[in-house]
UniProtKB/TrEMBL annotation:
Signal peptide: 1-21
Pfam families reported in the protein's UniProt record: DctP
Name of the protein in its database record: TRAP transporter substrate-binding protein
Domain of life: Bacteria
Species assigned in the record: Paracoccus albicereus
InterPro entries with a match to the protein in the record: DctP_fam (IPR018389), TRAP_DctP (IPR004682), TRAP_DctP_sf (IPR038404)
Length: 326
């Protein structure tokens, strides 16, 4: 390629980019740590398309996946200060900012993913939104991050008795360690990247995660028994900087909010499809899925965990309201 041709191509690209930028009166930057194509990323992209269409191209949202703008904790702080306009992050990362989000990491809090959606789309989700607003974050939509379940290399886990004495990798999190203690198993915190070899060599018996992670990590190759107990479902949040939100007209705020909530419907659908595809893949590879279990004994065993972490009347009331949601 000649220098002249290359220069011409670069000039053309610059003109196209410039024209595109001129069409957008306001361009918002949105961060996600997940890779391109992941349900949460595709959800925000769909939101961006709807916003651009309904504002006749005035407002554009540029999505930066794969932690291009930083890890979740850093990008949340940048969003609070208006350096970044939007962020998608797990509730777990908001624990130090909005303390009530800690309660959503309690084991067996949600009966199912449908139960979680009803809680987050109802009055409880609205109240949490007010708590986020006090921290300069506007809660736009609650996404689904899947349900974590146990898998191991030794035997099918069909009851709480089957867990006794088994060694499971968990995240370095006190709630997780206490959960395993309450179930009669041994918690072994370790980096995620070490889990495969640790199961393979017998250092641990298993771990816990959702179907897509169980599949993509290769853990299904060394831990063939997957028990669908769904002990943890942590919501995810798409939030906007209050500084950015306040710059929008009431009409544009309504467009952004509606588009975000519509995107949550899509994201949940994409997540369910990804879970189903991963389940089919691991089953085809020989994994045994244990789905027909009585979860009540697992739930009952969490009493000391809840006693330890749900200590105020306000927290106790919130947990009860979540459980009472039909």
């Amino acid at each position: 390629m000649t220098t002249t041709t290359l220069a011409g191509l670069l000039l053309s690209a610059a003109l196209v980019t410039g024209a595109s930028a001129q069409n957008c009166e306001l361009t918002l930057r949105s961060s996600d740590t997940h890779p391109d194509g992941y349900p949460t990323v595709e959800g925000v992209k769909a939101m961006a398309e709807e916003v651009k269409e309904k504002t006749d191209g005035r407002i554009c949202i540029e999505v930066f996946p794969s932690a291009q703008l930083g890890e979740e904790k850093d990008t949340i702080e940048q969003t609070q200060f208006g350096v970044i306009d939007m962020v998608r992050a797990s509730f777990g990362t908001f624990n130090d900012i909005v303390p009530d989000t800690q309660l959503f990491s309690l084991p067996y809090l949600f009966r199912s993913e449908q139960h979680m959606h009803k809680v987050m789309d109802g009055p409880i989700g609205d109240e949490l939104g007010e708590a986020f607003a006090e921290k300069d974050l506007v809660a736009l939509a609650y996404y689904d991050g899947g349900a974590r379940s146990f898998y191991n290399s030794q035997k099918p886990i069909q009851s709480i008795e089957d867990l006794q004495g088994m060694k499971f990798r968990v995240m370095q999190n006190d709630v997780f360690v206490d959960m395993m203690d309450a179930l009669g198993a041994n918690a072994t915190p370790m980096p995620y990247g070490e889990v495969y070899s640790a199961i393979q060599t017998g250092v641990i018996d298993g771990a816990e995660n959702n179907y897509p992670s169980y599949d993509s990590s290769g853990h299904a190759e060394v831990a063939k028994y997957f028990t669908l107990d769904q002990h943890l479902m942590v919501p995810e949040l798409v939030a906007m900087s209050k500084m950015t939100w306040d710059k929008l007209s009431p009409e544009d705020q309504e467009i952004v909010l509606t588009a975000a909530q519509n995107s949550a419907v899509l994201e949940r659908k994409l997540w369910a499809e990804q879970e189903e595809a991963s389940r089919a893949k691991v089953e085809e590879a020989g994994a045994e899925i244990i789905a027909d279990i009585d979860k009540q004994p697992f739930i009952d065993a969490m009493a000391p965990v809840y006693e330890k972490y749900v200590t105020t009347p306000e927290a106790q009331d919130l947990v009860q309201r979540i459980r009472d949601t039909e």
